[in-house]
Amino acid sequence: MKLEWIDALIIVIYLVTMVVIGLVLKKKASKNMDTYFLGGKTMPFYLLGLSNSSGMFDISGTMWLVYLAFTYGLKSLWIPWLWPVFNQIFMMVYLSIWLRRSGVRTGAEWIRTRFGYGKGAGLSHTIVVLYAVIGVVGFLSYGFVGIGKFIEVFLPWKAVAPYFPFPVDPQYAPHIYGIFFTAIATFYGMLGGMKGIVWGDVIQFVIKTTAGIVIAVTAITRVSPQLLQAHIPAGWDTPFFGWTLDLDWSLLLPSITHKIAEDQYGLFSIFVMMMLFKGIFFSMAGPAPNYDMQKILACRTPREAALMSGSVSVFLLIPRYLMIMGFTVLAVIFFSSDFRAQGTGIDFETILPRAIHQFLGVGLTGLLLAALLSAFMSTFASTVNAAPAYLINDVYLKYINPGATSKVQIRASYIIAVVVVVFSTIIGIYMHNINTVLQWIVSALYGGYIAANVLKWYWWRFNGNGFFWGMLTGIAAAMIIPEFFPDTLPLYYFPVLLVLSLAGCIAGTLTSKPTDMETLISFYVKVRPWGYWQPVAEKARERYPGLKTNTAFGRDMFNVAIGIVWQCCLTLVPMYIVLQQQLSLMGTILVLGITTLFLKKNWYDKMNRDEKEYNAFMKSLEEETPVGSSVQTAA
Known about the structure:
Blueprint: H1 5-29, H2 33-38, H3 45-56, H4 59-72, H5 87-101, H6 107-115, H7 119-154, H8 157-160, H9 173-222, H10 225-229, H11 254-263, H12 268-284, H13 291-297, H14 302-342, H15 351-359, H16 364-400, H17 406-429, H18 434-458, H19 464-484, H20 494-510, H21 517-527, H22 534-543, H23 553-579, H24 582-624
Helix pairs in contact: 1-9, 1-16, 3-9, 3-13, 3-14, 3-16, 4-7, 4-14, 5-12, 5-14, 5-23, 6-7, 7-9, 7-15, 7-16, 7-17, 7-18, 7-19, 9-14, 9-16, 9-17, 12-18, 14-15, 14-23, 16-17, 18-19, 18-20, 19-20, 21-22, 23-24
């Protein structure tokens, strides 16, 4: 496969633009650490939401989703619940508000607002930083594997080798490509800080949306519904399912039958129930300490943080699934005979780059490659930004150089970014495929995160000691248990990780003293969570008689359920557009309209009312409270 010079020029222009953005915004980004890591908390929610969605529109994930759509059809709608994608709904409805009210810079700093400054709080702070760095390295390795695999299809090493300064074994070609593109992403993200990343993401979003529309139109014009029906098994074009998957590819493409068995998704109802079970706990834990959390903390107000999380689904799902289903439909029609000839040795993760090469002409190929490179760049740069945020704010300033000037902090963040990227690249070299990294991140590592991070929001007695032991137990289990279940989907042993982590949480909590009441009252008054907070709420009301208890649990959970349906409709609309299923499309749009109206009345309007009451109370409290008190407003 060979790129034409026009396509190569488009890609070069895009890469140069990203570097220029970093250089232009370098001065603004380096004013102080709030400006560098959070954009000074001045950017509107829609820009942050667009940036966040662009970061989630990554190249490795898109390659994986194209493979899923090819194999499972519209039933692939459910498989991203492994992340789970619906955690954005929990954050939209209430968790982003709670998190932003803290007014901190990182998730590790947030721990101080919840557990204070005792020994247990120090341990919990340390374990969050450790977890954040492990998570960042995992995601960077995941991106590194994907970009190398993707570029190799368009630039075979035999075409590049003559220009390379020293001989390289062709099997390492993806690693060379990965190093090159990760270096560019690191450069502009490192220099421009949060603002550089956001404005880079805006450009990237426009490119990706344009590319999604182009590929969807290409699929619609080249593949009729009748032609598609002849190439897919019964049930492929519906999201509904029974006890088992019931997709029989044996006559059309036998290798997919082998792949489904390998994925262990055959008992689909059990698989979906397990994803839902894990996903609810994961979502109630709040965002992991990564770029998603940083975008929430960068919002101007708690209300805008909620709107930012809600906008992510709108910005992300429609253009992304136009692209995914467009490539899928074209691949099903035009690649099936080739795949049959290959037998079981098919690398389905290369469907996306192969489809780009075959179905797009000169110019459009360059545009789409730039779009998918931008998908990689935005995710990688946002993730790179998260690592220094934790290591500078929560390690360097606390333990190494507390008096460091902003200039010294920025320089240290450059060094840390480079070290983290180099380390993750070395790990990525030893990863065999995207799915391996993805499954470990979403099912194993996150399994160790959930219990402690659920309890921190909803149980007043839970303390820093319990958080530390719960997280440590969970992370250790996530590292060890896969060795005992080497051929098992990590999702299926998630309950074991959850139970072990929960046991560590409870044991650590009950064998140590509660968090001091002053810290708990300060946290409760600022964040105002629902859950088992009655002892703290009573003490807080004694001190602040005008304080209102949060009784919105039932309303929030109902809004979450409606929000998940709303999000599924946002995913199905572009799918049905590409498949040209007009009746199903109209029905989905109707459900989307009804759920949108419901969320407007029961979530948006009531959130605005609650925030006005909250802000009025906090303003009155600020006027009464001496400067330096532990109770401060979130803004």
